[in-house]
Design a protein that fits this description.
198 residues; alpha+beta; 3 strands; 46% helix
């Protein structure tokens, strides 16, 4: 039996399920994929910088996985994408920069005029040809006295096995950084944001 190929959308589904705490066995059962294939895709994702707080980057990471698994198709996919989108470059630029539309809305507008491309193809085209999504310039803060200012952040660390419940659970962290000394304090919890709402 030949090896089944999976597309970018199917790989995104694996990553979403992994973020939500599904194990490899559960993902394989839900998607109909071989467990070794799921394991391979997650391993490649982690090598490409995948983490549990990168939900917005799943399409990009899925494309990188697809490109590594099928390097022979990468150039063909990119050439096809550019052939379709380059004639609309000026229109896409106008929608993004002048009309300030989101990339999702640009994708919908393109589909409505018969430009049939996937969201990830549009995303990669916009990054490579229009500089979309490039990092903003950081503004340096004024000097402060010790203990005067602290930076606070809250986010997901990843998945941790919880022996009490017998399943994987998401682990969160509250991080407080003193601006002057850069000393950091971290508090971990499995409760999520609601613990700090009180």
């Amino acid at each position: 039996m030949g090896h089944k190929e999976y597309n970018v959308t199917e790989i995104v589904d694996i990553l979403r399920r992994w973020i939500e705490g599904d194990g490899m066995r559960e993902i394989a059962k839900a998607t109909g994929m071989d467990r070794n294939t799921v394991r391979k895709y997650i391993r490649i994702a982690e090598e490409k910088g995948f983490s549990f707080d990168c939900k917005g980057n799943l399409d990009e990471i899925a494309y990188l996985i697809f490109s590594e698994v099928h390097p022979e198709k990468k150039d063909w996919v990119e050439n096809k994408r550019d052939r379709i989108l380059l004639p609309h470059k000026e229109t896409i630029t106008d929608w993004l920069e002048k009309q300030k539309l989101t990339l999702t809305k640009v994708h919908i507008k393109l589909l409505s005029i018969g430009v049939d491309v996937s969201y990830i193809a549009l995303y990669r085209f916009s990054r490579e040809h229009l500089g979309f999504g490039s990092k903003q310039i950081t503004v340096r803060m004024a000097e402060t006295k010790p203990g005067e200012v602290a930076e606070v952040d809250f986010g997901r660390l990843g998945i941790l096995y919880d022996p009490a419940s017998g399943r994987n659970r998401v682990l969160y962290a509250l991080v407080v950084t003193q601006v002057f000394s850069r000393y950091q304090y971290m508090y971990t919890t499995q409760s999520g944001f609601e613990e700090f709402d009180q």
